[in-house]
Design goal:
Spore Coat Polysaccharide Biosynthesis Protein SpsA, Chain A; 3 domains; five-stranded parallel beta sheet; EC 2.7.7.9; Ribosomal_uS2_CS
Length: 614
């Protein structure tokens, strides 16, 4: 019997797998189904979530100054929690003042923290904000979730199948399980062992003053080669909002220039021109979207954001012709043909003309800056550049990110997005700010390639032009690799929402963009609020849909996919109008069989192989 089997059996003995009679939509990924009208929780996924939570608590406990707040109102759990805290404080005395149980409200900062009477002292709240909140019984804890989110405190919590989404999404490390007494005892025992193990590891390093997390990061950055091994990732939700002062916003946006590349061709989809000219939504192209968004910002704030378009020779004429319709807009557009203003022309694959080495767009930007354009931009008062990935349809200006760069003197910022290989678990973990190794990032966003990685590098860069000027003569400056950030004085990654990274590489991506899952306003894609899952559905269309012309003919209208988890289509399949897809849908037509899906049908968790299955 393997160790994994033993651990799973231990979980089963605690009845952690027995859920409620109701399973919310966002919780279904943790369940097998229903039995005797009760949802059955997948113990393997419970174990994965539990390991992630314990790993976070262990990492946090390495800093002696860190503190934990345990929230509980269930009297059955209280003796277990008391035993855990007393055991930890007896074996680790320095933790005596850093483990708290629920005593008051976190945000009640204006009220007295201590009251003295003749006989005793009452303490209603911790004297400082905790670094983590652990919630054992999540029922009736809505105020705790709201307060912790307001203060930016990560939450570790037991969650059940009936927990509402508005509170569920605030949990950083959810542990899906039935909150039985046995399971709570198991968790408290594991937390105790994790804290003791970290104490033992720290003591094995020898006596002396214990370094804080900040000290360790600083010492690591000073060691040889370590600075290039980690990058600080800041969640998009943690960024401060843009100033409401129009004049102040104008002053900031006037310092920005946008650089977009139009070398990605659409020949693999049967389109002869650049991807920037493919109609993706309501007749609008990716080029239309970014031009309209810049036009909207210029009109709203009275600023001037120039758009620099870099085109290879085989797409330059098409792009210049498409720019004619923008002549009446208040947008300063400058097209550049590669070969006239750049030093690198060999980034189009020689073996296949329709494959653009989009990972090389940083080198093209550097080459453009070397051509004298950098000096012109600096003379115009430009300080920041947004370098947009040519494959990313949703890569547009975000004033919120620009404001963060200016306030924190950031010289290099790469937009990253959490992978979906670990599902909602990894999505919740992405809400934490922290250091991540470069091995955790990949630039290949295909479903098979993201396994084992935590973030996808979207190849959209925010750069400080003054820093580029300082490094422009350095041959080591290579913007195509995250390791470049070691050359900059202050560099970060920002974990962006899914709506800012929508690649267009095949008709399956086009299906997603044209569906009701996304709409766009003022050149920006907006996600449908009715979508509960944080990740987009997986779409896999067969070779019959590979060309855009075939794709358009086979769909009368794009089906509704707001509640879709995955769609797989193979064979000669035709779709009617106003179809609704939910859950997991597989449509596989046998060779020689034409399968027509009639209009106005609703397909939910179905596998269709012939017309009788509809």
């Amino acid at each position: 019997m393997t160790i994994h089997s033993v651990v799973i059996q231990k979980l089963l003995t605690t009845n952690a797998h027995i859920g409620r009679q109701v399973a919310t939509h966002h919780f279904k990924q943790f369940t097998y189904g229903f039995r005797n009208r009760q949802s059955i929780i997948d113990s393997d996924k419970t174990l994965i979530c539990l390991r992630n939570a314990l790993n976070f608590l262990s990492c946090l406990s390495r800093d002696p100054s860190s503190s934990f707040l345990f929230i509980n109102t269930n009297p059955l759990f209280q003796p277990i929690i008391d035993e855990m805290t007393s055991r930890v404080t007896s074996l680790i005395p320095e933790r005596a003042s850093s483990l708290w149980k629920m005593r008051g409200f976190l945000t009640n900062s204006c009220s007295p923290k201590k009251f003295r009477s003749r006989h005793k002292k009452l303490v209603f709240a911790p004297t400082k904000m905790p670094d983590c909140v652990v919630i054992f019984d999540t029922e009736r804890k809505s105020s705790v979730f709201l307060e912790a989110e307001r203060l930016g405190i990560p939450i570790v919590a037991l969650v059940d199948s009936s927990m509402p989404w508005e509170y569920y999404k605030k949990v950083t490390y959810p542990i899906p399980a039935n909150d039985s007494v046995q399971f709570v005892y198991l968790i408290c025992n594991m937390i105790t062992k994790c804290l003791m193990l970290e104490k033992k590891k720290d003591g094995a390093k020898g006596p002396g003053k214990k370094a804080t997390i900040k000290d360790r990061v600083e010492s690591t950055s000073e060691s040889e080669g370590s600075a290039s091994d980690e990058v600080l990732v800041v969640p998009y939700e943690n960024l401060a909002p843009m100033s409401c002062d129009v004049a102040e916003s104008k002053q900031l946006l006037d310092k920005l220039v946008v650089v977009k590349y139009n070398g990605a061709l659409g020949k693999n989809m049967g389109f002869g021109g650049p991807k920037s000219l493919i109609e993706v939504k309501n007749g609008s192209t990716p080029l239309d979207l970014i031009v309209n968004q810049i036009q909207s910002l210029n009109s709203k704030y009275g600023c001037n954001i120039p758009l620099l378009l870099m085109n290879p020779k085989n797409t330059h004429n098409d792009i210049v012709k498409a720019l004619e319709k923008y002549s009446t807009l208040d947008v300063d557009i400058h097209p550049f043909e590669q070969g006239d203003h750049t030093q690198h022309e060999s980034f189009v694959s020689e073996g296949c003309e329709d494959k653009w080495q989009s990972s090389k767009h940083g080198a093209h930007f550097l080459s453009l800056m070397n051509s004298g354009t950098l000096d012109v931009l600096l003379a115009q008062g430009k300080e920041y550049a947004l370098v947009v990935n040519p494959d990313n349809v949703a890569g547009v200006v975000d004033p919120k990110i620009l404001n963060h760069l200016a306030q924190n003197s950031i010289e290099y910022c790469s937009e990253v997005t959490p992978t979906t290989s670990n599902g909602l678990i990894n999505f919740m973990a992405s809400s934490l700010q922290g250091m991540f190794k470069l091995e955790d990032f990949t630039s290949d966003h295909s479903e098979k390639s993201v396994k084992g990685f935590k973030y996808i590098d979207t190849r959209s860069l925010w750069l400080n032009l003054k820093a580029i000027k300082r490094l422009v003569d350095t041959s080591a400056l290579n913007l195509d690799n995250l390791s470049t950030l070691k050359l900059f004085e202050n560099s970060i990654g920002i974990s962006i929402p899914q709506s800012r990274f929508l690649p267009l590489n095949c008709t399956s991506d086009l299906f997603l963009l044209q569906s009701d899952l996304y709409s766009f306003t003022e050149g920006m894609f907006v996600r449908n609020d009715a979508r509960v899952s944080p990740s987009d559905p997986s779409i896999a269309l067969g070779p019959e849909f590979e060309k855009i012309s075939d794709f358009k003919r086979r769909f009368e209208t794009i089906p509704s996919i707001v509640k879709l988890d995955s769609l797989e289509v193979n064979g000669d399949v035709w779709f009617g109008a106003d179809i609704v897809l939910k859950g997991k849908v597989v449509i596989d037509a046998s060779p020689g069989l034409t399968l027509r899906i009639p209009g106005r049908v609703v397909l939910e968790d179905e596998e269709i192989n012939d017309p009788t299955d509809i």
